Amino acid sequence: MSDLLDVLRHTVGSHHVLTGEGLGAWEQDWRQRRPQGKALAVVRPANTAEVAAVVRACAATGTPIVPQGGNTSLSLGSTPDASGREIVLSLARLHAIRAIDPHNLSMTLEAGCILHHAQEAAKQAGLLFPLSLASEGSCTVGGNLGTNAGGTQVVRYGNARELCLGLEVVTPQGEVWDGLRGLRKDNTGYDLRHLFIGSEGTLGIITAATMKLFPLPSAQLTAWAAVPTIEQAVALLGLAHQHLGAGLTGLELMGRSALELVARHLPHLRVPLLAEMASPWFVLLENTDSESEDHARDRFEALMEAALAAGCVHDAVVAQNQTQAQMFWQVRESISTAQAQEGLNIKHDIAIPITRIPAFVAHTDALLSQAIAGVRIINFGHLGDGNLHYNVQAPAGDDPAIFLREQEARINQIVYEAVAQFGGSFSAEHGVGALKVEQLEQYQSPVALGLMRAIKQALDPQNLMNPGRMLRL
Amino acid sequence: MSDLLDVLRHTVGSHHVLTGEGLGAWEQDWRQRRPQGKALAVVRPANTAEVAAVVRACAATGTPIVPQGGNTSLSLGSTPDASGREIVLSLARLHAIRAIDPHNLSMTLEAGCILHHAQEAAKQAGLLFPLSLASEGSCTVGGNLGTNAGGTQVVRYGNARELCLGLEVVTPQGEVWDGLRGLRKDNTGYDLRHLFIGSEGTLGIITAATMKLFPLPSAQLTAWAAVPTIEQAVALLGLAHQHLGAGLTGLELMGRSALELVARHLPHLRVPLLAEMASPWFVLLENTDSESEDHARDRFEALMEAALAAGCVHDAVVAQNQTQAQMFWQVRESISTAQAQEGLNIKHDIAIPITRIPAFVAHTDALLSQAIAGVRIINFGHLGDGNLHYNVQAPAGDDPAIFLREQEARINQIVYEAVAQFGGSFSAEHGVGALKVEQLEQYQSPVALGLMRAIKQALDPQNLMNPGRMLRL
Fold first, then answer.
1. Is residue B437 part of a domain?
2. What is the residue-averaged pLDDT of chain B?
3. Which residue of A lies nearest to B436 if distances are taken between CA atoms?
4. B85 in contact with A at a CB cutoff of 8 Å?
């Protein structure tokens, strides 16, 4: 192994091969709920050629590789296990924006580029890079692609996958696939791009990508509505599609109990309509307009009139300015923080066909309440994409740690069985990582698992790329 | 082999196993320029289970399978070779629309459903299925997905790939993968869907799909503009993105020589602005509006004012009604017919990064004119997607058949080398089929080819699924 470390030091420079103690920033998951892993080394190559050389050195010595971007995985996808055998390959030094092409509406950038920097670079060129999620200040575009990240504008722009035109990838053999052509149409063989996107580093290492850009919108408006039932929230989504067309860039659903946690733990945030209305559900809508703010406001008001007339909403407010709009979003994005302050909870990142969401929620709420008296369900998410963060909190007053220890497996079983029954997914946007490997085996069909394993074995026969994450052989 | 035919007859009914003469409808490419192939049999299963049984019977006897939808391939992708050893597996009887889900904005339908029927079914449910291409009256959705078809609305809605939420596929082993979940977010393992889409039947047989639907637009307007240079056509595209946002659903470019052929051979069609303006380029724009026809017209007029002021257009007309709009499209879609009447020609379906299109055209036009005095270049296509149908016609008066025989290889070489040099694709939307297998080997990188072959061998180790098409082992 000292031979390998020598080769790695020679390849990337000895300053960029980190060993020993004090590597928590790479060895520990950012939530810090799980025990710290132990890497053989953290290796920080500077460019694609160095990444390829590191991979070849690891392949030659049978050393497993854990690729890592901003270390913001929610599923233990990018930290090493405790064996001390795995290297962490950090993409952080590959952070260049290689090119922005305004006429082609595309941007080529390296995997370690932080998402927020990518957004800013596009904006400076007068364009929009629409991928947006809570960790955008530290997550990287390579990680976003490796996990096919979602976020808050998927209803309009799609997931990270839909925003990608091309990739550069280092294969498990340490070869470089240059697939960075910024084309909207290219039917020349299998779509390798989509195979690597969402593969969580198990088939190769994404080192750069060409991503779609969009014209900067002229206006963006945000509204907040109190909704009588979850069925009416789904009906409101339909009306929003009709009235706003592609202008609808966000539709977030929040249960009353989720917002009550925000009001309790983050009292400096004013939760709109919560005190005034007894509604069990609230919705945040975002409308993006290529014309003008007046036009956006007209469209929004027409939508709200129709929604009030149809009984989809009890009441609604449109943010009067950007500050108020940001405040609406801040309330939405503070639910996780408020939940953490309330105590440990059991998180589920699920997707359900939108039509079936009301029945799913009624069914699963009832099963959980039956199983555990007083259990609290904190349900919120991206309704426009059918993606719910259906989280379960201990009954008020119970010790959350004991609750988790005793009930987590049982609650997961209830929730994931219901998800399967309603044709949904147990991992909508957070990926599988090391955390949900068993769920993948349980809920993917044997035919799908067989195909996935055949692909993994064909491309990574030594099983060195993020082994044991996502797909167990 | 008679054993196999017996099994097939038992599986799908003897009426649906066709052998002998008179099978030209399945054995011959629709252009009828290539010699007719010879199938061992044409097999017409009625449902997914029958498809799976047919595949198992073929796997057991080592019989190659050519899947076929509407037999409208432009690249010899779905007709049998001359060996008499291959069966044609026709999906035509799997044509049901299984479900339309308005709240989920999705439709599940079988592979043999004709594209136009899918469009009509969506419309009857008050929704839009936006995939649209010239052969929509006979091509099938399964074929569209197998080849990742493009068409005229890609600039807004993407290719067939981008419209697909889920697939049902029969694997080369005759197993059924049910991946029909209609979810917008699902990160549970490798994206098998995108691997099968565009694989041209070489990895399995798509039997059904869940596709995205959209709200029906309130208005659709079409405009026709005369443009001074191809650089200004690209600038007009940028203005259209800015002014129309997601309302821009089509931007087609047509060279003057392409339209002159239409005017000469199809004199009943009036080509707008051709007689009045000396412009070398014309553009057809389509604007789709979720609000109203008045609003669409206002937006279009604002765009045209800006384009005139910027010098992007010489003159423009907006269609005054649906009939006139259809006439504009008819002119655009008649270019191929007019070309055929002028005589055989050498077709190229290429994509180039949009910014580089003007330089590519200048470069390649010059090379061809230098190589063959008087050669005529008929250039038109989907500029919004960077997709050109860059076709080459014999000098006026030359015999097209002799021209093709003597010059086709040389012209292809010049065009495809230039495409590679400008970072483009030799097959934008028509696929590879049997026609462009050599181009794939020449212009895909060795690393990409190695990955593709590893995948093909892993999933279809007997090489029975459309063998020799797309990817040669």
1. no
2. 96
3. A188
4. no
